[in-house]
């Protein structure tokens, strides 16, 4: 019993570490940093994800409010010129809204603060990219997150069970497969549908790494389940499935996901007439 508890704790530590890494390195994680304002260090947090229907506010500490802040933005994957919007100071913060985009649309932006003849760019290098999506009901999102986390935990625990040559490996493997299937292949597509209007954007329909890594984990555990069905001691298959799942779910969430390509849309529009007919140039 004590050994089993220790294995569960070890699996929990490994799973939490993977989940935290995935969260902190994902493209929707806010960009954080510090800059000097009024001679003092001020921290900022810039959003990289937005739910359509709400104001997409970008704000910074304003300090004394004596500076001038500007929000520079343009659509990603477009030939748009940069737009510049003043960020008035109110309640101790510079603030302005980004214009709303369609689901899957992305906006890239940066900010500038001018104070006492000095200009500060935020972030210092690069751009912040934020993606727009629709809201996902809590009744779908919460079960998806909980079941997928438990699936990752169970995957790691099953791998440890195989390493220690424990009993009932067949049951551990099939339970892992079932949990990942429910969380990733039932609730996952529901989340995707609510957020971006499509049930599946991975292989063979797209390159969404979130969908694809779920599929990879499913295939790995299906192979392991079939292996232990024939041979209850097929531990290498189970260990391999656990390692593949751990690597797959360490991949940052939402990478290579649904994304509007304005350049492609403009090119398509230029080739069609008013009634949608192809224009011969």
Word description of this protein:
The protein is elongated, with a radius of gyration of 24 Å. It has six helices and eleven strands. The chain starts with a helix and ends in an 11-residue tail after the last helix. Helices cover 44% and strands 23% of the residues. Strands 3, 5, 6, 9, 10 and 11 form a six-stranded mixed β-sheet that branches. A three-stranded antiparallel β-sheet has the order 4-8-7, with no helix packed on it. A two-stranded antiparallel sheet has the order 1-2. It has two domains: 31-133, Immunoglobulins (Immunoglobulin-like); 136-250. It has helices spanning 2-25, 138-163, 169-196, 209-230, 235-250, 262-270, and strands spanning 31-37, 40-46, 49-51, 56-61, 68-75, 83-87, 89-90, 93-98, 106-115, 118-122, 128-133. By secondary structure, the protein is α+β, with helices and mostly antiparallel strands.
Keywords:
281 residues; alpha+beta; Immunoglobulin-like; 2 domains; six-stranded mixed sheet; three-stranded antiparallel sheet; 23% strand
